[in-house]
Specification:
Belongs to the class I-like SAM-binding methyltransferase superfamily. C5-methyltransferase family. GO terms for molecular function: DNA (cytosine-5-)-methyltransferase activity. It is an enzyme of class 2 (transferase). By secondary structure, the protein is of the alpha+beta class. Among the domains are: 203 residues, Rossmann fold; 57 residues, no CATH class; 80 residues, no CATH class. It is 21% helix and 21% strand. The strands form four sheets. Strands 3-2-1-4-5-7-6-24-25-22-21-20-19-23 form a 14-stranded mixed beta sheet, with helices on one face. Strands 11, 12, 13, 14, 15, 16, 17 and 18 form an eight-stranded antiparallel beta sheet that branches. The radius of gyration is 30 Å and the shape is globular. The termini are far apart.
Length: 736
């Protein structure tokens, strides 16, 4: 306790010193009315007397920060560090120069983007698009300079007189989340994404930032990526905050090169956000709009109140700190409207009316079935006292505040993702976003006729290719609504397609011509129409190919990850293609390795200790032979610019690894001696005892690879040579 009090005194002295350094002459933003001024003064009083300066919490001006003080400590990650990575980022970027940013926030909610830009000290001219009255009132009170432009569906170019630099939006997730209706991107709520797409098309900003849940279907993720033309970043907020919140972010803002290593730092623990309580866990669960009560399936953690020595539920003010907002950020005066009441009715869980029993009848004990049926409405725990200080009568109620916080951004994450805009060279090279074609929801989908898609072959490699002819059902047909009530039952998927078959010249050295080792080269379009009724057969949409009349040339394209097979060592590794070139006029000559003019500059990928995550190294290699490229690997960014999460794991991965060895013509395999080996298969990143490693017949992946192999130990057990059956070693290219 003495250490804690000493820390408080130290922070007070630091704040006093900074106040004199800033030379603040006013404690209230200018140009606002008396009502807003009263709200701000009350807000400051609730924050332990910390006064907001003109460049502080509610301003879009540049804030004075310790990074401008000579000798300021930037080691925020170390044992003695304070975890203040924002100051370190600002110090690295240097002072702001140039014009303020014009920012449009769609589905603005509590205004998380304004708080993030304020944290970074980025001056901005803000425009907010929001329809919920309580959220609008919070933004008006906390960021009075932000202008409000109404519903995103009615937003047009005339609503904003300035050239927009940045568009930010976290569109509704109810149809995408695993906890929602699962109607997909074209559902009744999540289809507002296409209004966001329309806004990008008409305003043409330099940068955009789009957020949604990471639990969405890969098909929906593929469609969003298709329309925005950027690979998403997956980031869990617990890496830099006290709460868990795994989300996907699509942005053309350059990704920060390094994520602050603060996951286990005291500054990002649940304890750092509590008021007079002891945390029983290091991190808080996902804050949702419906986990206010203990009875819900997604309730948050309980904490121990130090005053009464009893467990209690977490407070709204503590949730505000978890989400990156200042304490009492949502405690504002609002006017009750019909929209507000509608929201409250939608969120509040109704209580069943009690039925008065006849006086002569004894009390009836509800049955187990009745208790199970009504448990969601009878076992709630609502704390009697939320605040130590009573709030004003017309302030936002507890339920309203929780609802808004549960639908909000994680401010620290948005601060991290927009921190690259602090650097003048990034702002200087910004180019207008160009969305071409239709943006109408009914005209767009994840898969279009004429697309080339990759499918998994019999060995688990995604290097079967097919051209889509037509598709119906699932996401491509309207949801049936015969009863007058919206139903999420979808029609069966039916995709008509024509496979692409590798030409004899490119399939010459393949042991299994139908399941080739290589995934690039010249392919002919078959006349037969096949029908696919399962999404699991597809891997990704192919974007790097040259189309001729009845043939396609598939090759590794820029900014793609490919698996490369090295036949001499029987190993597979991953590369990130920085740049590749081919000579289109020679591709129809059908001469592999001679006339393609192929050259690819690639970066080697290094496997990390985290499952499926690879590091993009600085080692650059040039590959002029297109044959070793096995298949393209779908991926997305993980946490920071140089970390990639690849998507080839599980049973199909191990099947393809086994097939790599069995379909290599004329080879001998080498292994180390009988001792334990530290060399793992490139894609086998799960424990040996994992259930996925065991097949239906009980054999493990290692037993499958060792099947039918005769091992001869040579040189005292230091080298092992594996002799294979004659048919696999056949060099004539026969089918195996």
């Amino acid at each position: 306790m003495d250490t804690f009090l000493a820390k408080i005194e130290e922070l007070k002295r630091e704040a006093e010193r900074l106040k004199h350094t800033c030379r603040c002459v006013s404690t209230t933003p200018t140009g606002i009315n008396k009502k807003t001024k009263r709200n701000i003064i009350s807000y400051n009083n609730d924050n332990n007397g910390i006064i907001a300066s003109p460049g502080g919490l509610f301003s879009n001006g540049i804030t004075s920060s310790p990074c401008n003080i000579p000798g300021y400590k930037l080691d925020f990650e170390g044992p003695g560090g304070d975890g203040d990575w924002v100051t370190a980022f600002k110090a690295d970027a240097g002072p702001w120069s140039g014009e303020r940013l014009v920012v449009l926030s769609l589905f603005d909610g509590l205004g998380g983007i304004w708080q993030a830009l304020t944290n970074l000290g980025i001056p901005f001219s803000g425009y907010s698009s929001e329809v919920l009255a309580p959220a609008i009132q919070v933004v008006k009170s906390r960021h009075p300079h932000v202008k409000h432009v109404g519903d995103v569906r009615k937003l047009n170019l005339s609503a904003i007189p300035e050239k927009v630099d940045l568009v930010v939006g976290g569109f509704p997730c109810q149809d995408l989340s695993i906890m929602g209706k699962k109607e997909g991107l074209h559902g009744s709520r999540s289809k507002l994404f296409f209004d966001l797409l329309r806004v990008l098309q008409i305003f043409k900003p330099k940068w955009f930032l789009v957020e949604n849940v990471a639990s969405m279907s890969w098909v929906d993720r593929e469609e969003i990526t298709r329309h925005l033309k950027v690979v998403p970043m997956e980031l869990d907020s617990q890496e830099i905050t006290a709460s868990k919140r795994r989300r996907l972010y699509w942005t053309n803002i350059p990704h920060p090169p390094r994520l602050p290593r603060l996951r286990d730092h005291p500054s990002t623990s649940l304890q750092s956000c509590l008021e007079g309580a002891l945390a029983l866990e290091q991190k808080c669960g996902v804050v949702l709009c419906n986990n206010l009560y203990k009875g819900g399936g997604a309730r948050l953690e309980l904490v121990l109140d130090n005053t009464i020595n009893k467990l209690r539920y977490i407070k709204q003010t503590e949730i505000e700190l978890l989400m990156g907002y200042p304490r009492n950020y949502t405690n504002v005066v609002v006017r009750r409207t019909k929209i507000t009441e509608k929201i409250i009715k939608a969120v509040r869980i109704p209580e069943k009316p009690t039925v008065a029993l006849p006086k002569s009848s004894p009390p009836q004990t509800p049955s187990i079935r009745q208790l199970r049926k009504n448990r969601t409405s009878r076992t709630f725990f609502a704390p009697q006292v939320w605040e130590r200080n009573p709030t004003r009568q017309e302030s936002l109620k507890d339920l309203d505040r929780w609802f808004l916080l549960g639908n909000s951004f994680s401010v620290q994450v948005i601060t991290y993702l927009t921190s690259s805009l602090l650097k003048s060279e990034v702002r200087f090279h910004g180019k207008a976003v160009n969305i071409v074609g239709s943006v109408r929801e009914e005209e767009l989908s994840a898969m279009e006729p004429g697309d080339v898609w990759a499918l998994f072959n019999e060995h688990g490699r995604p290097n079967w290719y097919a051209v889509i002819q037509s598709r119906t059902g699932d996401r491509f047909s309207e949801i049936p609504d015969a009863t007058g009530k919206r139903s999420i039952t979808k029609l069966p998927l039916s995709i008509e397609m024509k496979y692409l078959e590798m030409t004899p010249a490119y399939a010459k050295d393949e042991v299994d011509e139908w399941n080739p080792q290589r995934g690039s080269g010249l392919l002919k379009l078959r006349d037969v129409v096949d029908i696919q009724d399962n999404w699991q057969a597809f891997s990704h949409r192919v974007t790097s190919y040259v189309k001729f009349e009845n043939s396609y040339f598939v090759y590794p394209g820029n900014d793609e990850v490919w698996a490369v097979y090295h036949a001499e060592t029987l190993s597979r590794y991953f590369v990130y293609v920085v740049e590749s070139t081919i000579i289109c006029a020679r591709l129809l000559n059908d001469k592999p390795g001679q006339d393609e003019g192929f050259l690819a500059r690639c970066l080697l990928l290094q496997k990390t200790t985290e499952h499926e995550v690879y590091l993009k190294t600085s080692k650059e290699v040039e590959l002029s032979d297109i044959q070793p490229f096995c298949f393209r690997v779908p991926f997305h960014i993980k946490n920071e610019a140089n970390l990639l999460k690849v998507e080839v794991s599980g049973v199909k991965s191990r099947q393809s690894m086994k097939a790599d060895r069995e379909t290599t013509a004329g080879y001998k395999r080498r292994k180390q001696g009988q001792g334990e080996s530290d060399d793992d298969d490139d894609l086998d990143d799960v424990d040996n005892n994992s259930p996925e490693d065991v097949n239906a017949d009980g054999t493990t992946a290692e037993e499958m690879l060792a099947e039918d192999e005769a091992i001869e130990v040579m040189n005292g057990g230091l080298e092992v040579v594996v002799a294979l059956p004659d048919d696999i070693g056949d060099t004539n290219g026969g089918t195996h």
